[in-house]
Amino acid sequence: MSFRVNTNVASLQSREYLRQTSESQGKTINRVTSGLRLVSSGDDAAGLAIANSLRSDQTVISQGVRNANDGLSTLQTLDGGINNVGRLLDRARTLATQSASGTFSGDRSVLNTEFASVIGEIDRQAQAVGLSTGGSFAKSLSVFIGGGRTANGISSTTNGSVSVDLSTSSVDARSLGLRGVQAQGVAAIDIGTGSASTSVSAILNDATNRASNAVSGFTDFYFRGAGFGDAEQIRVSVSTTGATDVDTLVANINNAIDNAGNGTTQAATAFKNAGVRAAAVTDSTGKKSLSFTSANAAFQVAAGDRTANALLGNVTSTSNPTGLTLANTVTGGSATLGAATTFGGTGAGTVTVRFQGANLASPVDIDLSITGGTTTVAQALTALTSAVAANSSLQAAGISVQTATAGSALVFANSRGERFEVLSSGDLSGSLGLGSYRRSGGVSGTFDYTTITGAGGLFTAAAATLDLSVGGGPVVSLSATPTAATVAGAITALNAAFAADTTASAAGLVATNNAGQIQIASGNGTRFRIAERTATDILGFKAGGSAIADLAETRTGDTEVNFFTSAGSQQTSLLAFSAIRNGDDDQTITISANDSTGTAQSLAVVLRNDSTLRNAGTVDEAIDAINNALQQSNNSTLRRIVAVKDKANGVGTEGIRFASTVSNFQVAIGTNKSGNTVGFAGQGTVVSSSTVGTGSTASIDSEASAARAVTALSSAVSRLGTAQATVGRGQNQFTFAVNLAQSQLTNLAASESRIRDADLAEEAANLTKAQILLQAGISALSQANSAPQQVLSLLRG
Description:
By secondary structure, the chain is an alpha+beta fold. Helices cover 36% and strands 22% of the residues. It contains 17 helices and 35 strands. Strands 6-7-3-35 form a four-stranded antiparallel sheet. It has a four-stranded antiparallel sheet with strand order 5-4-8-24. It has a four-stranded antiparallel sheet with strand order 14-15-11-23. Strand 14 and strand 15 (411-414) form a beta hairpin. The longest helix is centred in the N-terminal third of the chain and has 55 residues, at 45-99. The model has no long low-confidence stretch (mean pLDDT 86).
């Protein structure tokens, strides 16, 4: 064997083993004293990461449990509030039942006073607990608890949340059907038995009123609202048989409303869902007026004849039961030609008479087949009268031919006071007195056009007059004298005339040469009609020689509003609207509102009148486009908003008003090229809605109203039960969620403990082992260090 002095291998080995033993003992002491297996990340990096994640999950779920318990407490508070509202309904039903008795001999006004205070207390308590309409808890509540997992496209956050939808669980008087929006007739007119001159009986027996009825024994009301607006308005035809006073009239109206709501159309279903009901309202002086109410939808009611107008309080005087006339007429710009006069030209052609406005969603054309030199004016007038009478759209709009006498101006009438327009095309000789505008092919082709090419132009150097109508607008007369007796000279003169006229230049009209004839085209897609009025066909667009005169509109009896928008609803101000006629005057309006969760919802609607789409040529077209867009959005919030036609104080140009039971909605009005003169005025602004009027409240001041209140209260109890069931379901959801979260907490803690905590029995054994090894190592190291000294004995030899 060999002996070495410089390197003591045994000592080095002993020191290394002793170091390892010492470190092991230190870790073991740390684990025993801390109770943790993982004291530092070096102990088990992967295990420590897992343990930290488990600990973080526990923190989240612990707070989530507190969130759920807070939510549970809130729902318990709401539950208690609903119980109180239930007791208030019990008292209201007691009062209503007492007042509904025919043998009650006391003062119903005393009962009604307490009844009103009970309704008011329902509103106060609903607001106090946050379950009034738009209240702090009348929405979808989401409580994050944690412990969720991502799967099937559902995030862990969504899976770890519990939602309770209380958006339909408000319990104020309006939500319970005891208070709502109301369209009320003129309150100054008493249609009750207290006024012999304007009572229901007097109105229904008035000869003038009866003569205005479309069907004998029936009077018509028209309703507009979300899903049944303007072109899809609902006609409610009310039987006047047996209606001798306000109460029997109201019963007949409600029967008619039920019948209309049972129709097969989507509009009828929307009307039924609106829950419109008729009622009689008595003011503080005892005067009675007719009203219509709804608990959940804004709407508008309009008179369809003079009887309905009178029942709404629009009578000629307080002592005369005759309803104000709703007549509105449009008269031809000139007289028709003689009865035996034949239409000019040769061959077959078509004269089109177009109607627009009066709640028509799009223009309605009546086409008359004409043979030049053969068809007489008398024959055309007969055909026109018959065609208008047979057209269902025109009849539904109340439009008819009032006067069709050869040699006199044509007169068209609307029986409901609605504004409308009459246009014509293809009558090149102006035989009907409605103008002599050319069709795209003279007497054939389209009614109006964006491009038209002349025929047979002489292009002489003489003055030519061209009548122009842009987008159905008023006539504009242009004069053009060719600079030379050529097509080029005529084109130069015509383009100069277009450039000098604001209407023609805005329409983008430009004349060009097309195979030797003049072609007039709009550069921005604007529709137009033209007629050349010269003795000779200078430009190739020859029509009648007389100047075209615009048709005159006459309104009579238009000093009172004949339609009423429900008070108590959210409404915008009346927005002025002018027809969009040019192709580049597109305008975008944006309607926005917050849903039940407070999330903003919005919809942009583009109004235009060009070769692509015509939806804003009249106020009625614009309303129809807006309402269709709202309904087709499939957005439950925006679908509750409706655009209706209205007018300020019953007089003036018809405008557009937005109405809804949705709170604080807005309408942003976009800009267009022509500014405030076209489309909606107030361009670049945002119009906000506000509550208009006070709406209706159930009352028990009469036996009939008390009977209606009993029915309404029965429904209110049912609605309250539904709301309370939703709250109870939410409490159960939170309880179950807490149970699951507590289970998750226990298991997460156990999992973390298995990774992080030390096994003290094992560590005690390890500590004993380390102590023994340490003692043995120290002894061995001592011997190893003394071994080299043994070499000295060899040197001493």
